[in-house]
User: Fold this.
Amino acid sequence: MTKARFTVEKTWSLDDSLLVVIEETLNQVFNERGAEFIFDFLRKEHHLTREEIAEKPEIFSAGLDGLLGSGAIVIEKLILKRLSSTLQLNYTEKGDYEFPYYIQKLKQEYG
Assistant:
């Protein structure tokens, strides 16, 4: 099976870019089967489809936390760093780290 390499098109919205970056990060860390397991888990246990992740980052974050525990934060940081790089932004962690906060700030400033 050929590994897909995702690229973010400049015409894509922030939501589209976020979804591509999430898929790419999960595939890189967990491989394709592991990423599909995570998406299935989010859909079944949290009623969250892939397309809804950008609209509901708090549910995505809670779902990852429920599945991965403290490892969820590592994945979220990888996603945020990759998204910032893709959008050519500087990623700076704030004191109280919360994934949904960063996504909402990005939407306010760049979405």
Q: What stands out?
A: The chain has a mean pLDDT of 88. The chain is about 65% helix and 0% strand. The domain at 14-106 is CATH 1.10.1200 (Non-ribosomal Peptide Synthetase Peptidyl Carrier Protein; Chain A). The chain has one domain: 14-106.
